[in-house]
Design brief:
Strand content: 25-35%
Oligomer: single chain
Number of strands: 18
Order of helices and strands: EEEEEHEEHEHEHHEHEHEEHEEHEEE
Strand order of the largest sheet: 4-3-6-1-2-5
Structural class: alpha/beta
Bound molecules: flavin-adenine dinucleotide
CATH topology of the largest domain: Rossmann fold
Amino acid sequence: MATDSFLLPVSDIVKETSEAHSIVFELPDDVRHAFQPKPGQFLTVAVPSDRDGLAARCYSLSSAPGDPLTVTVKRTVDGYASNWICDNLQPGDTLRVLPPSGIFTPANIDADFLLFAGGSGVTPIISIARTALREGTGRIVVFYANRDERSVIFAEEWARLAAEHPDRLQVVHWLESVQGLPTGEQLKAFAADRLTYDAFVCGPAPFMKATIAALKELEFPRARRHQEKFASLGGNPFGDVAPVEDAEAEVVEPAEAADGVTKQPVTLEIELDGTTTTYDDWDPGTPMLEFLEAKGVQAPYSCREGECSACAFRLLEGEVKMVRNDVLEQEDLDDGIRLGCQSLPTTDTVRGTYS
Ligand SMILES: Cc1cc2nc3c(=O)[nH]c(=O)nc-3n(C[C@H](O)[C@H](O)[C@H](O)COP(=O)(O)OP(=O)(O)OC[C@H]3O[C@@H](n4cnc5c(N)ncnc54)[C@H](O)[C@@H]3O)c2cc1C
C-alpha cells in the first residue's frame, strides 16, 4: 500500500558546511495539516533516480515545530541520495516527502536534557534543543563530537543559543582532530552528574556504541535513554515505482514468520492518541498496521519495511512476531517495543499502545 506523499517546494538551501546542506521546504496551506512535527522527528524524501525511479531516504528535521520545515543532509562518501541532494537540489525545485514520523522525541519538553551528537547526528539534537529552549524550562547540555572544526554543523547557531540562554544551555564541542575520539571514561564523566536528565543520542555507529555503553555503565535509566540510528531505507514507501534492492537486509518470508502464529482471528486492543479501541477480527496473517488501516485507523508509519521505527508501539499483553526488524535492539524488544508494520500476532489476544 502506498503512503500519502506530498510534493513540497524547496524555498531555500543553506550551505551549513562544505558537506552539509539544509533544505528548507515551503508548506502550502493545503498540506500544512499533514506536517505538524514533533522535535526530533524525520521526513522521508523521494530522491529521483534514473536507475530505480526513486531512492527513499529519511532525514531528521533540524527545525523546531513552528519554524520553516528544514532537514539537514550531510554527504555520505559514495552515497547516492545525499550527494544528489547536495549537488542538484535548488530553491524552486520540488521533492516528494512523507509527513514527519519517528519516536526520537521527548515525552516531556520541561525535562532536563543530556544530548549527545556526532557529525550529522546533530540534526534531531538541535531540533530538540531549540524546542526545549523555546517551550521547556529545564537545563540542556550538549556533547557534540566532530572530526574537526570545519565539520561542525550549526556552529554559529549553537554559539548564539548558548549566549541567549547561558543559564540553561551548555554546549561542549569535542574535536577528534584536537582531543582524539572520546573515550568511555570521558563520556561517562560528562554524563555522571546528569543521571536524572533525559538522554538523546544520535551519531555514527561507533560514537553511539561508546555513548550508550557509557550510559549503561552509569546505570542511566533505560526509560530516559533514547537513540536514533541513521541508515538508508532499502524499500520504497512511496509505492509507485520498483523498490531499491537492499541485498544485506535479512527478510523473513511471511510464511516462515507466521509459524506458530495463531490461526484464529485475534482480539486487538490498541491505544492511540488517548483512545483505546478493541477489534476481535484481526487476521493473523495481516500485519497490525495494515489491519488498523483497513479499519480506518490512522496509525503512524513511514517506511513500512521494518527499517525506521516510525510505527513502533508498546506491547502491554500478548505477543507478536515481526516479519522483519532492522532497527529495534534487544533492549527495545525487552521493553515491549514492536514495529506495527511488521507485527503478526502469535497469541489470541494482543494489547498495545502507541503512547
Ligand atoms: C531516522 C533517520 C534519520 C536520518 N537523518 C539524517 C539527517 O538528518 N542527515 C543526514 O545526513 N542523514 C540522515 N539519515 C541518513 C540518510 O537517510 C541516508 O542514509 C544517508 O544520507 C546516506 O544515503 P546515501 O543514499 O547518500 O548513501 P547510501 O545509502 O550509502 O548510498 C548508496 C546506496 O545508493 C544506491 N544507489 C547508487 N546509485 C543509485 C542510483 N542511481 N539510484 C538509486 N540508488 C542508487 C546504492 O545501491 C546503495 O544502496 C537518517 C536516517 C534515518 C533512518
